[in-house]
Amino acid sequence: MMENKEFQDTQENNENATDTVEGSLASEKEESVEEKVQQLENKLGEMKDNLLRALADAENTRKRAHKEKEESVRFGITSFARDLLHIADNLSRALKTVDSKTFEDKEVQGFVDGVKMTEKELLKTFERHHIVRIAPKAGDPFDHHQHQAMFEVENNTHPAGSIVEVMQDGFILHDRLLRPALVGIAKGGAASPSTNIEV
Predict the structure, then answer these.
(1) Are strands 163-168 and 147-153 parallel, antiparallel or unpaired?
(2) pLDDT tens digits, one per residue of 57-97
(3) What's the CA gap between 37 and 59, in Å, rounded?
(4) What is the rounded distance in angstroms from the CA atom of residue 82 to the CA atom of residue 94?
(5) Which residues fall within 8 angstroms of residue 78, CB to CB, at 6 or more apart?
(6) pTM exceeding the 0.85 threshold for the entire prediction
(7) One GO term of the cellular component aspect (predicted)?
(8) What are the strands of the beta sheet with 147-153, ordered from one edge?
(9) 8 A C-beta contact, residue 129 and residue 81
(10) How many domains does the structure of the chain reveal?
């Protein structure tokens, strides 16, 4: 009987050891599975973050490309427009030399009228393409955003900082300055309502 008892004790010990080993293995498996799940969740979160960043970058690139395309459409004629400004200047100078005289010679008068019509048509074309003339007058306040001061002159009839002479008109394309108006400004007189004078 003793042998039987020893056998039972041994068998119980073996069962307990087996239970302990199985419990230990199950516990390790659970920890391993939990660890694996945590790693996968971390990886998934990282991938989601990377995806959101990539989508945001793609959207920003799309918006930037769209803005650049719009600006190239709006301002693509800048260089060409600047070249045409010289033609407008020459037509304007030609008309200033004849003032508002009428000529008895119909051919000369026809020529002058043709130059006037050409200038008028050129300015209409400018307007269709959003090119607007800046034509300040004597007495207007100086605006450093649209005018370039070429000289200052003592002048008691105009307020200080106001325009006394326009040497050349300026032009704007949409909201960008193509060329500032070249002006002379008054040094003396009362203070002008203009803000800054940059010479």
Answers:
(1) unpaired
(2) 999 999 999 999 988 888 888 889 999 999 999 999 888 88
(3) 33
(4) 19
(5) 173, 176, 178
(6) no
(7) cytoplasm
(8) 147-153, 181-186, 163-168
(9) yes
(10) 3
Same domain, 90 and 69: no
Tokens 């034509």: give the residue. 135
For residue 130, give Cα distances in angstroms to 81, 127, 143, 168, 175. 10, 5, 21, 19, 9
> What tokens appear for 6 in the block?
């020893």
69 shares its domain with 82: no
118 three-class SS: helix
Q: Are residues 101 and 59 in the same domain?
A: no
Q: Which two tokens stand for residue 97?
A: 């030399």
Question: Cα 28 to the chain's mean position, in Å?
Answer: 60
The pair of structure tokens assigned to 172 is 């704007």
Q: Which of 57, 75, 93 is at the close of a domain?
A: 75
Structure tokens at 86: 């010289």
Rounded Cα distance, 185 and 163, in Å: 4
